[in-house]
Amino acid sequence: MTTALDIMHPGAMCVGERESLTDAARIMREQDIGALPICGDDDVLVGILTDRDIVLKCVAEKRDPSEVTCGELAMGRPQIIEGDEQIERVLELMEEYRVRRLPVIDHPAHRLIGMITEADVARHLPQERVAEFVSAVCCD
């Protein structure tokens, strides 16, 4: 059976909660990604920052991204999955919570080890199941 470990992007990079949004945006540009996990000083995941968050919650509000920290935008507790969970559980979580990115953690250390995105899911599922997934995650 396929697990989260099998489909994730390994080695997901965290941005520190005290780092500025400017720093996060630079990392996103360099890595060609649209989201970064936010980790606290203890390396525990505290949120996920998207490029959309930076635009809507900082730039559009005329705040200075060099003065706003990533932690300020870390809202709520992110959905996570353990690496040994089956792909069906990955889909259940992403569909239920309508998330497009899912951090993968190592158990029992609870450290970030990877990320699963919609593209990862699409590469590992039959076309019919991908259509169901996209409809559940993206549409009203």
UniProtKB/TrEMBL annotation:
SUPFAM superfamilies on file: CBS-domain pair
UniProt-listed PROSITE patterns: CBS (PS51371)
Domain CBS span(s) in chain numbering: 8-66, 74-132
One protein family per Pfam: CBS
Keywords linked to the UniProt accession: CBS domain
UniProt KW Protease keyword: no
Annotated protein name in UniProt: CBS domain-containing protein
Organism: Actinacidiphila glaucinigra
